[in-house]
Structure formats: structure tokens, C-alpha cells
Amino acid sequence: MKVLLKTKAAFVIIFTAAILSGVAIFISNHVIVNILNSFYAEKATELARTVRLIIDASSVKKIKSDVLAIYRASEKKVTSDDWGSPEFKAYTEQFSSVTRSNVFRALRTTLHYFQTSNNVSSVYLIHLDATAKTVVYLVDASDDPCPPGCIDRLDINKQSLQLLENPDIGFQTYQTNTPEYGWLITAGVPVYSNGSIICYAMVDISMKEIRAKQRYFSLLLSAILLLLTVVIAITAINIVNKTIASPINKLSAAAAQFCAEPTVIEHHGFLDLNIHTGDEIEDLVDSMKQMEQDVNLHIKAILQTTQELRSTKLRADRMSELAQKDTLTGVHNKTAYDGEMRRLRKTLMLGNSPFGIVMIDMNNLKHINDTYGHEKGDEALKTLCHHICTVYKHSPVFRIGGDEFVVLLEHNDYRSAAILETSLKKQLNALAEDESLEPWEKVTASIGIALYNETTDKSPEDVFRRADSLMYEQKKKSKAKS
């Protein structure tokens, strides 16, 4: 039985196009996987470096010293392989004094805030015991943390051997897939080193998001390549009536080049063809050239749009930052303060989160403006703001009115509220008693401070009102004395 050349050609073209598309999809998917993995590996490393910058090194040294003292004194060391066993619980219970310390809690709070803000799976600090070839956990900010003193044994592979020989290089990014934690990409950088004693900041990023993006791009690319395959196959069936061997070979080569090249660069395979058959083959070539031009224009448009989006985001971020700053003093304004109040309300809904509010109102601003001019009044406001920011240098300061400032106390400043208030009053009293200063430089202020009480306070506004009331009581007493 004879088979028409048209049928043979169609079969060959369809078969060849399918193979080329499959190879292109496989190669492109491999490229996509490598690009995304490389991006998230760099992201994990960068986040680990950021952790190293934001944590307090002296606190880390303190925790490491406490943990290692118990770790070295322990007669029997139980690894995480025995997680949940009575022996493991008895071993980790030895470190309970560490977990109760304020230093540990402050470190874990910082790491947990960083973990939540950056939407990563876990952030933790570890100690590498090169002699014992083990990893000892110091602080773990994850929701199901490894307790201090928890031990993991290093798998002796090429990477771990390099790490043991030169601990300062840090953990190279690597992927793991375990039943407990799923797909993770992990990076670690040294926090500090002391001989062979190395402390690392580690970051785990879930691969779930990465796998989803890989599937999306793979499906999109597969659809495009399959569509291209169908177009080539249907066209080939309609152009086999004349001498087509040479043109089809050229078209096949151009199609192979198109499929093999990355989709994010301009293509010139079809544009470089020089075929003039005066029939459907020439029309096909012209169609391929137009398609390639459209693809190139589309690629240019995508790249241009991406750049414009980046520029727009940068401008928007800058405008947002300026919109939340007070133009006179440079501190946060009322808009930023309202945002903090919304954040505190959400935090209180999730549980008890200690904080305090300091209400500061400058005295005699109207008198200074009326007597010496508004320019001197502005100088007085800047002077007061400078002293507030100096005392509360670890807390956000807001100017919410003409002469009203608010300080939000959390963490260490919350615990030192009384000391800081005394310090601010001392500085302002020193200004008032300094006879070398101009009248507008001798700024005074009324201060009210209130700390959150979970029993009586239902919202941050309740704390604000108490602080405001205490401030006005002090202002009344100040006016009565004068």
C-alpha cells in the first residue's frame, strides 16, 4: 500500500516537532528550576546575613556560653534522632534555665519577628562543634522550635567536610526534604568565630512557593511550545505538493533553534531565512518571520514593563516614607502613629503584648511664638524633639500635634520606662536652669506615661488616654507653680 508523500511529510514533521518540543520543555524546565533555586538560595543567604546584622552579638555570646556550659557538663548527650523520648526530654530539660532568661527571650523575639516579617519557615542560631561533628541549637524562632542544647549530627559529605575544615566559610545553601518539614532551602552565615568555636545564623525557606512557581512557568512554557508545534505541523501538511525538502530542512532548523533558545531573548532564526519559492512555503516563511517579530516585540514590551514597574514601586515606597514623616522635626507623623495603633490592636487580639505610651506636651509654645516669633517656636520644638529622640533612641517617636509628641515603648524601653522618663526630665531641667541659653532654648514639657494593663485596657487608645490624662495633670501642676 502506497503512502502519500504528503502523509509521510506530515507524519515526519509532527513526530519531529513533538520530540523537539519535548526536549525544549525539558531543557527549559531545567533552566527554570535552576534560576528559581539560585534566586531563593541567594535570598536565603542574604536573609541570613541580615539576621547576623540585626541580632545583638553580646547576647548571642551569652546564650552560647550558657548552652555550651550545660552541653559540655552533660554526661549523656541525646541527639534529635530521639526526639520526644524520655531521654531527650530529660536531656533538654537541663537547659530550661536558659529558655527562662531575658536574654534568650529577647533574642527569640527578635528572630521570630524577623521570621514572620520575611515569611520564612524558620530562623535559628546554632553552634558547630567541629570536634564532635555535631550541630548544637542555641535559639530557634520557629513555632515548633528545637530547644537549646538540641543536637543534630553532621552527615559526612563533601559539603560538611569542607565546613569542618574551614568553619568560617559558613553553610552553603542546600535543599532538604523530610516528612517533618517538607522541602526546604537552607542557608547559614557565621555570626562570629573564636578559634574553632563558630556560631551561625541559619534561615530555612519553604520550597512550596518555589515548586508552585516552577509548575506555573512549566505549564505556560509547555502550552506555548505545544501551540507552536501544532502550527508547524498543520502548516507542513499543506505545503508538501511541490519540491519542499530544502525549505522544510531550513524551517526545521529554524524551529529547532527557536525552541532551544531561552524565551526571554530576541529570536532571529526565521528572520534570517532567505526562501523565495513563490508558493505556500514562502507564505509560511513570511508568517514565521511575522510571528518571530511579534514575539520579539512582546519580549521587549515585557522587559520595559518590568522596568517601569520597578521604578514605580521605588517611587511609591519613597512617597510612602515621606508621607509618614513630620517635615519640621523629621520624626514620624500622625499618619505613622495611626498605623502603629492599628498594628497594636491586631497584636492585642493575638495575645498579651506589653507596651507603654509616653505623652509629651511642650510648655509655653504659644508664648514663644507670640514673643519671639514662629521661627523660634520651631527651634524650640526641634530642641525638645532632639532630647526626646536622644533618650528614647530605641523607640519610635511621633509628632501628633503642634506641640504634642508620643513615644511607643516596647521591649527594652518598655522595661526601662521609669528610668527613661527620669532621664528626659533631668535633661529638660538642665535646659531650664542653664542661664547661658536663650529663652526659647530653655524648653520644658509635661510628661505622662502609661503602661498596658491587660485587666483594664481593652485597646491601645485606653493606654493613650491614661498617658494623656497624666500629662495634663502634670501641666496643670506646672501652671499652678508658675
- Terminal Cα separation, in Å? 118 Å
- SSE topology string: HHHHHEEEHEEEHHHHEHHEEHHEH
Number of helices: 15
Structural class: alpha+beta
**In percent, how helical is the residue content?**
55-70%
Neighbour order of strands in the largest sheet? 3-2-1-6-5-4
Number of extended strands? 10
Short key terms for the protein model shown above:
482 residues; alpha+beta
Short description:
Helices cover 58% and strands 14% of the residues. It is of the alpha+beta class.
Overview of this structure, please?
The structure is a single chain. The chain has 482 residues and is of the alpha+beta class. It has 15 helices and ten strands. A six-stranded antiparallel beta sheet has the order 3-2-1-6-5-4. Strands 8-9-7-10 form a four-stranded antiparallel beta sheet, with helices on both faces. Strand 1 and strand 2 form a beta hairpin. The protein is flat, with a radius of gyration of 34 Å. The model has no long low-confidence stretch (mean pLDDT 82).
How are the elements arranged and paired?
Layout: H1 5-54, H2 57-73, H3 86-93, H4 96-99, H5 102-118, E1 122-129, E2 134-140, E3 151-153, H6 158-165, E4 174-178, E5 182-194, E6 197-206, H7 208-237, H8 245-260, H9 280-323, H10 334-350, E7 356-362, H11 365-372, H12 374-391, E8 397-399, E9 404-409, H13 411-415, H14 417-433, E10 445-451, H15 460-481
Antiparallel strand pairs: 1-2, 1-6, 2-3, 4-5, 5-6, 7-9, 7-10, 8-9
Helix pairs in contact: 1-7, 1-8, 11-12, 12-14
